[in-house]
Amino acid sequence: MLNTVIAQNDDGTLDTSAFDKNVRIQDDLFNHVNGSWLKFTEIPSDKSNYGSFGKLADDSQVRIREIIEETAKKEHPVGSNAQKIADFYRSFMNEDAVNAKGYSPLNGELGKIRALKTKAEIWTHFGHLSKIGVGSPVGFFVSQDAGDATQYICQLIQSGTTLPDRDYYLKDDEESKKVQKALSNYIKTLFDLAGIENSDEAAQEIVALETSLAEVSWERVKLRDARKRYNKQSFKELSELTGDELDWAEYFAANDVTATPEMVNVNTPSFFAGLAKIIKNTSLETWKHYLQFRLLDSYAAYLSQPFVDARFELYNKTIAGIPVQRPRWKRGVNAIAGAGAGDFGALGEAVGELYVQKYFKPEAKAKMETLVDNLLTSFGQSIDDLSWMTDETKSRAKEKLSKIGTKIGYPDVWRDYSALNVSADDLFGNVYRSNIVEHQRNINHLGQPIDREEWGMTPQTVNAYYSPTKNEIVFPAAILQAPFFSMDAPDALNYGGIGAVIGHEISHAFDDQGSRYDGDGNLNNWWSEKDQEAFSKLTQQLIDQYAAYEPLEGKNVNGKLTLGENIADLSGLTIAYKAFNIANKGKPEVLVAGWNGDQLFFVGWSRVWQRKYRDKEMVKRLLTDPHSPSKYRANGPVTNIEAFYNAFDVKPGDGLFKPEADRITIW
């Protein structure tokens, strides 16, 4: 049972029952604002972490469930979105029918793998698997060309491993060995359930193969470097990279790319050179075992309960520390609606259209537009005030700023699901067909104008993002709720919450990677050499600051991996505070629960990051997540912001004090 502090809002907008007043705000903003909540709240048994984002995601999920179940109570015209939503949910919730089929829905695909006779056929099958939503060592997708953002291009990137990061394979500490053993057990279990012989031997072979893939994979810090990932190659150059034995024309044809692309972007060239050697040195039978495993793993969540349980044991229990499987209705809702990271979302925007009709108010969008305008104005003023940047580069930065587009709430053009056939008694088939439809949707971009109406998140997703190639900031409807945003809240809380989120996304256009793109979305160096050097010195200081944080004993934040998000947090909060002053210039002071406007602003910021993690989840995030843990997202930026010192009279000796000469201002 979830135990939580009972929320008691002093004025309807500020929950002070979450505060721990035994912790001085000058020492620890995060624990002062969230400390009692942290003490008395248990992470729900089906989650790896929980907090403000998780609470809103839960609320969104309950709303979506109501929408889906109400839809499923009725009959709808065949081919309508409502029919597809209803029948997909019926197929997911009919557990008896799913269990009765066992793994039989995969027989056809397993048979195709068993029939492969050469490594050339293995290679071609990588392309087929991509089409049906199954991972292989070749990560393939279509997106904008970072060198010419007016065009789409085929992208190739390293892939093919099961565990969350290469370090899980390459480290030999006790915890890593446990995870490696759990992966081997998982493979064996899937093979035994599917009646595949020699499961012990196959599991060892597959773990060894994935380890060899991990060895040639780029580490995450290198992988986030936009320039290193941009390696546009002709078909001839690609073939020279990997050797004549790998027929790329056949690979793309298996992906249903009808015309062999003239140019591709090879994000991780050295990985593909290494992959060519691994393919050569690995036996045909091992590759067939590997492909069988990848197929079973990708569809395990939609097969009978033993497959579902095996998958949960590895991914949720062993890696993330989650003790209890989510209820089936939650998994069904997420499979249809795709409201969170990693969710399938076969009909995400179809559900999203119903969601915004019921829950998103036009006045919220209008108020958000005002907030965004103020944040953009504030960022422009901040650029003008920078002491470390030359006037020429300031002018180019403001040019990029002026071109940032904004999307709020939901798409103007909804996604078309007419190509997807959904049956009430075929869960596997619904997922399988959805994978093919979405793959086709992606490759259909080739040769077409850039789709400016397309969204990368559904409206019911509690998140936001910045796209460097489109140079746009996007805020789905579901994040426009308290504690991030409320029509009834004072400006200080809204600017400390959603205002700082807006500022965060704007700042991504100018973080260490986003700043490499110009206002039209092209990788284009618009910096002077002098300004680039100054920027690098500032970002190194931020790397060092966050690398000193130690959320678990002996395990520190990776300051290089989290740099982009830390820049966005610091700069976003800085410009949100300036925008708050723009919005409140000349207005009378508003006190809430004894806090003045400046104090409320930082309280609003801290409560957004209210979150607890299980230890295994924290270990995983320290390896894989470009965001810092929530405590440091709340506390880290404010140590650099003068307004925080003034608001709470922070002095030498206080936990969050940093000498003025050491404070970092980037944007």
Features:
28 helices, three-stranded mixed β-sheet, 9 strands, four-stranded mixed β-sheet, alpha/beta, 667 residues, disordered N terminus, Collagenase (Catalytic Domain), Neutral endopeptidase, domain 2
Describe the structure.
By secondary structure, the chain is of the alpha/beta class. Among the domains are: 103-302, Neutral endopeptidase , domain2 (Neutral endopeptidase, domain 2, Orthogonal Bundle); 371-403 and 480-662, Collagenase (Catalytic Domain), CATH 3.40.390. 53% of the residues lie in helices and 7% in strands. The chain has helices at residues 29-40, 52-72, 81-93, 95-101, 107-114, 119-131, 167-170, 174-193, 199-216, 220-223, 226-229, 235-242, 248-254, 269-281, 284-299, 305-319, 328-337, 348-359, 362-385, 391-402, 427-443, 491-508, 529-547, 563-584, 597-608, 615-624, 630-638, 642-648, and strands at residues 49-51, 138-145, 148-158, 232-234, 263-266, 405-409, 465-467, 472-476, 611-613. The chain has a four-stranded mixed β-sheet. β2 (138-145) and β3 form a beta hairpin. α19 packs across α24.
What would a concise description of this structure say?
This protein has helices at 29-40, 52-72, 81-93, 95-101, 107-114, 119-131, 167-170, 174-193, 199-216, 220-223, 226-229, 235-242, 248-254, 269-281, 284-299, 305-319, 328-337, 348-359, 362-385, 391-402, 427-443, 491-508, 529-547, 563-584, 597-608, 615-624, 630-638, 642-648; strands at residues 49-51, 138-145, 148-158, 232-234, 263-266, 405-409, 465-467, 472-476, 611-613. The protein has 667 residues and is of the alpha/beta class.
